[in-house]
Task: inverse folding
């Protein structure tokens, strides 16, 4: 898993789940999607905006598979009504950086 999308969560009230959470599939925190070993950093701000960073992409996932993080994982989240769900948007491993390269001469390519 490289990127996720379709993030959805029902909050008790604005900011009630604020915090940073580290969760992993296969250890009770994350269920749902096929595959193994994915780990995520979930950040919820005081306005209840959710940001998810993939910290370990895991193996054998499919695009559009859905992850579920139980509501009880979060501050003040005690029921499945507070579950966080998100989908696999893009597959890949690790983090990548890209830099534009301008070729000024075809001599470099020989």
Result:
């Amino acid at each position: 898993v490289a990127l996720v999308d379709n993030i959805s969560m029902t909050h008790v009230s604005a900011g009630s789940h604020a915090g940073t959470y580290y969760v992993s599939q296969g250890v009770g925190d994350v269920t749902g999607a096929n595959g193994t070993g994915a780990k995520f950093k979930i950040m919820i701000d005081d306005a209840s905006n959710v940001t998810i960073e993939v910290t370990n992409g895991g193996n054998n996932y499919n695009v559009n598979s859905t992850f579920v993080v139980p509501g009880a994982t979060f501050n003040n989240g005690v029921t499945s009504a507070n579950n966080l769900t998100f989908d696999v948007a893009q597959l890949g491993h690790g983090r990548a950086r890209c830099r534009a390269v301008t070729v000024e001469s075809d001599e470099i390519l020989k």
Summary: Residues 95-110 have pLDDT under 50 and may be disordered. The radius of gyration is 18 Å. The beta strands are 3-9, 19-24, 31-32, 39-44, 50-56, 66-69, 84-90.
